[in-house]
Specification:
single chain; alpha/beta; Rossmann fold; Luciferase, domain 3; 5-stranded antiparallel sheet; 26 strands
Length: 532
């Protein structure tokens, strides 16, 4: 089977099912995927994806049907992605880090016609499905599972044969990604073929990826970055993707050297773990010509550590609802503009607006970042109210407070909903966290605003101390007081073993607030002398 999009069809010019077809013709024997030493050529990837797409259609799956997956990063999962792209189906990759209850809620919303489950996750899937009134049919991914025999869709098939729309269109949904839900219930963001095409085209204009590149993919494939930040672009360009199922810093350093990895995408916590690994100083990083960091602001000292190793580690910014690429920092700006996320990608429009009035500012400004362009998502699945709110006025409202300088470079300050007001002054937790991280004994830090009878809100900090080092609350308070105005100094600092995080290592601030609320009582003992 070849691509289901007919040649020259005007509505399917940007569909991703074409990509493996084209590559299988141009470079059939080149390695597309290195999955823990097991390789898959472009010809094999196309054959398996095309056959699965055809089998899904024959079994009764029609355009727009959801295929959910519960699996680690694997070549089998990539086959399912491109099969969905060819057949007009929607891939819904679910997180294996969720509890059965959380997973059942996402399955209930996504309403998939089929759930593909890796063997190791059968128990989790069964527990989640047991909580659903009508669980979907299940199968395993891979040649011995769904590629061998496709179950019929979960719905009752009509008496008459279903009508298929053979061509896949640009505005057909391709990916349904659940947002991280750091503050509340996650939502299902729908990304179309056009969204994914344009975000990868934007990335290609700055990343300069070639068929000779080797991309190490460590982000989970249930996250948008597991597809649209380097891997899909690599398969479009004919490069090789080395898939990892997890993140172990020693193994990542080893893979960079052994596989001659040229590109990598990670989050700040992962780069910190790599930099702190005992092998980091003497690991061979000579092949790594570009590494991108996203998911959260990168501490300046950590950026400099990587720059000293000769790696062009540059900050980027994106969000699921933008497919996700929005801002990037060119390699030549990485050392000069430390702490900035850069400028918009090509084909991406941005604006800075007053968070209250919506007035759009010109030139240097501070406000909420708004995003426009063909990468902006189609909406939240079955949630028109949330979709209308986030796309109000024709812009995607990111909820992020940013600063834009006179030259157009943008720095992310913090999440608007994370900023708290203390003594009438806005306080950005990220600013306080940066000061805490500058203390040599602090490995990780998170700050949340909590009610304060006198100041309205005050900061409560949580700190993870570096192994083999010691500090205490009083020392850290004095450290903050020396570098921050009194109103920004945290009221309390708690030493913890770890910070609660999402699958992409974003801090779960809501859980930290819950922990504080459960204390009896919450201590508010910071010396008043530092306050105005």
């Amino acid at each position: 089977m070849t691509s289901t999009t007919g040649p020259g069809h005007a509505d399917g010019l940007h569909t991703l099912g074409r990509w493996t077809t084209d590559r299988s013709l141009a470079t059939p024997h080149r390695i597309a995927i290195d999955d823990r030493g097991l390789t898959l050529s472009y010809a094999e990837l196309e054959r398996r994806a095309a056959n699965l797409a055809a089998a899904l259609q024959v079994a009764g799956y029609v355009t727009g049907d959801r295929i959910a997956t519960l699996t680690g990063n694997s070549s089998d999962h990539v086959v399912v992605f491109f099969a969905c792209a060819k057949a007009g189906l929607v891939l819904v990759p679910l997180s294996w880090r969720l509890s059965p209850r959380e997973l059942s809620l996402q399955l209930g919303l996504a309403d998939p016609q089929l759930l593909l489950v890796e063997d190791d996750l059968d128990a989790l899937a069964a527990a989640a499905c047991s909580l659903l009134p009508q669980p979907p049919r299940t199968a395993a991914p891979g040649p011995g599972g769904v590629e061998k025999s496709v179950p019929a869709p979960s719905r009752a098939l009509p008496a008459a044969a279903p009508v298929f729309r053979k061509e896949v269109r640009d505005d057909d949904a391709l990916l349904m990604i659940f947002t991280s839900g750091t503050e509340g219930a996650s939502k299902a963001a729908v990304l179309t073929h056009a969204n994914c095409f344009w975000t990868n085209l934007s990335l290609s204009r700055t990343l300069d990826m070639a068929s000779t590149d080797v991309v190490l993919a460590v982000l989970p494939q249930f996250h948008v970055g597991g597809w649209n930040i380097q891997p899909l672009l690599a398969w479009w360009a004919g490069a090789t993707v080395v898939l990892e199922r997890g993140f172990e810093p020693g193994r990542v350093l080893q893979l960079i050297a052994e596989r001659r990895v040229t590109m990598l995408m990670g989050v700040p916590t992962q780069y910190l773990m790599l930099a702190e690994h005992p092998d980091f100083a003497h690991s061979d990083l000579s092949s790594l010509r570009h590494a991108v960091v996203g998911g959260a602001p990168m501490p300046a000292p950590l950026l400099r550590i990587w720059h000293r190793r000769g790696v062009a580690l540059s900050q980027g910014y994106g969000l699921t609802e933008a497919s996700p690429n929005v801002l990037c920092l060119a390699n030549e700006d990485a050392a000069r503009m430390v702490g900035y996320s850069g400028k918009p990608y090509p084909h991406v429009a941005v604006a800075v607006a007053d968070p209250v009035t919506g007035e759009i500012y010109d030139g240097a400004a501070t406000g909420e970042l708004l995003v426009g362009g063909p990468g902006v998502f189609a909406g939240y699945f079955r949630d028109p109210a949330a979709t209308a709110a986030v796309l109000a006025g024709g812009w995607l409202h990111t909820g992020d407070l940013v600063e834009r300088d006179a030259d157009g470079y943008i720095r992310v300050v913090d999440r608007l909903k994370d900023i708290y007001i203390s003594g009438g002054e806005n306080v950005a937790p990220a600013e306080v966290e940066a000061v805490l991280l500058a203390h040599p004994a602090v490995a990780q830090a998170a700050v949340v605003g909590v009610p304060d009878e006198r100041w309205g809100d005050s900061g409560a900090a949580f700190v993870v101390v570096r192994a083999g080092m010691a500090t205490d609350e009083q020392e850290l308070l004095e450290h903050c007081a020396a570098q921050l105005s009194g109103i920004k100094v945290p009221t309390t600092i708690s030493m913890v073993g770890a910070l609660p995080r999402t699958a992409l290592n974003k801090v779960l601030r809501a859980r930290l607030r819950q922990e504080l609320a459960g204390r009896d009582p919450v201590r508010m003992t910071h010396a008043e002398g530092g306050r105005p």
